[in-house]
């Protein structure tokens, strides 16, 4: 039996912004391979190109050189969740969650059932007819997560989705996302500057160098699935966080 193709792969991937003497080498070269069902977290110093990598994966940016490929059977294989929610203020919670399904022209009965399911799973059932302006930041991010997962994407791309939230709410949503993604086993590329977030959520933590960002290390958190947020209290969690911090500190403050 041959080795299965990765769900997402990058080879010799680079991105440069601008031309001439003012050009900025933002990313790469990056080599990356994410198998089906893996939750891969990317951490790195500020400005290292983490979000650039994700935007190339989403098709929002073109690479300067190299390739990034997502192997799927779906014509709309990926869904993306942004830090700033990316939901529509003029649509109700229900209309936001079903937006991607309407774009895909999913039959109404199927779409309604799927929207109801994700509203319930994300604790939004009582707010289906509310508008985003009346919701807290955490609830708006739940809307964004429900909208992305409702289309049943083969790949989920997440760009620091909890960065703007306070520490307590961030922990709650980390645990909720952990439960949801363990149930769906959606292949996920998750960008974060939080080492705790990466360890709690990730099957694998990829560490990027300072700009231009390259992947310089990877760690597999030693916690079997299904896991819960209780792993934060374990010595293994503390040890891995310390090891990752040492790597990032060396990149952020070169010796």
TrEMBL record:
One MF term in the entry's GO annotations: ATP binding
Entry keyword annotation includes Nucleotide-binding: yes
Matching SUPFAM superfamilies: P-loop containing nucleoside triphosphate hydrolases
Alphabetical list of InterPro entries matching this protein: AAA+_ATPase, ABC_transporter-like_ATP-bd, ABC_transporter-like_CS, ABC_transporter_ATP-bind, P-loop_NTPase
Start and end residues of each ABC transporter domain: 8-235
Highest taxon of source: Bacteria
Chain segments annotated as coiled-coil in the UniProt record: none
Residues in the signal sequence: none
UniProtKB keywords: ATP-binding, Nucleotide-binding, Transport
Name assigned to this protein: Nitrate ABC transporter ATP-binding protein
Origin species: Streptomyces asoensis
The organism's taxonomic lineage, starting at the top: Bacteria, Bacillati, Actinomycetota, Actinomycetes, Kitasatosporales
